[in-house]
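Changelog entry

Holo records now carry the ligand SMILES as an explicit input line rather than a separate metadata file. Below, a converted record for zinc ion, shown in the new format.
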Amino acid sequence: MPEGRVIKAYSGHYFVSHKDDVVDCKIRGRLQKEGKDVLVGDIVSFTFTDPEGMYGVVEDVLPRKTRLVRPPVANVDQAVIVMACHEPAPDLELLDRILVAVEADGLDIVICFNKIDLVSRYAAEKLAKPYRKAGYAIVKASARAGWGIARLRKALAGRLSVFAGPSGVGKSALLNALEPGLRLETGRVSSRTGRGRHTTRYSHLLKIEPAGYVADTPGFSKLDLDKIDKRALAHLFPEFRMPMENCKFTTCLHHMEPDCGVKEAIEIGDIVQARYDNYVKLLLEIAERERRRGR
Ligand SMILES: Nc1nc2c(ncn2[C@@H]2O[C@H](COP(=O)(O)OP(=O)(O)OP(=O)(O)O)[C@@H](O)[C@H]2O)c(=O)[nH]1
Ligand SMILES: [Mg+2]
Ligand SMILES: [Zn+2]
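Structure line, unchanged by the conversion:
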């Protein structure tokens, strides 16, 4: 039976990429009864229902490697988190929040600082440095000028990636730069609020040569960290992992405790203060939530 990847789904139609074609499929009723839903990103087996091979029926869903809730995409390997260097102003608290959520999902991570054409080289590097230091793969890019696009393409090859980041940072523009044929709708950043307008509203997968798939996801601006408990949080900051081994107490939350390896690492410059400050912010938020639930 032929197999392919679901690249788009809406109102009962599942578009399955098969060889160089896309087959418009319905779903076998039995699958619903078995409680199997079909997500964008799923690999499915299907049968053709017409001699031209344009239409088909999804017969089964192959086992999923991963399943993201937001955006609802299956089998994602990697997240590309896009922030603009300017317009909208970089929100590093949001970036750290997204990083924590993506780390918790176990995805590989690339951080793309876009719109470097709008700032000095120094300003772009100042933004990127703490994250490079934390061990993240960084791409500095300008969708407008075409800078960094080759590096981004390399990072996407052979994997299914999601693009994430606030509205207006240039996710669609970057994808257009990668595949000029796509002509995705890009929005203006509102001059009144300085924010994007959430131009992109549904998930589908785009083929990025060579052999990369990308979900162009809705921009989002808020993220709750509901499933993360406060003991797990520090492990989701990769640059904390080694210093944590020097904490005196195995229960150390790296906040008020004495003899804390994380705080020592800040003093000698191995951990950036701003990252730590966002850690504490998230820690207190999680602690507060756990307290409320405990009651
Ligand atoms: N100067 C400059 N402008 C850019 C760059 N990339 C994107 N833009 C502009 O920023 C605006 C928003 O870009 P989009 O690609 O629509 O942003 P998005 O992240 O897809 O936004 P949503 O779909 O709302 O989540 C558009 O006006 C783009 O032309 C860049 O590298 N430099
Ligand atoms: Mg968009
Ligand atoms: Zn500690």
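Spot-checked after migration. The chain has a mean pLDDT of 89. The chain has three domains: 3-61, 78-216, 230-294.
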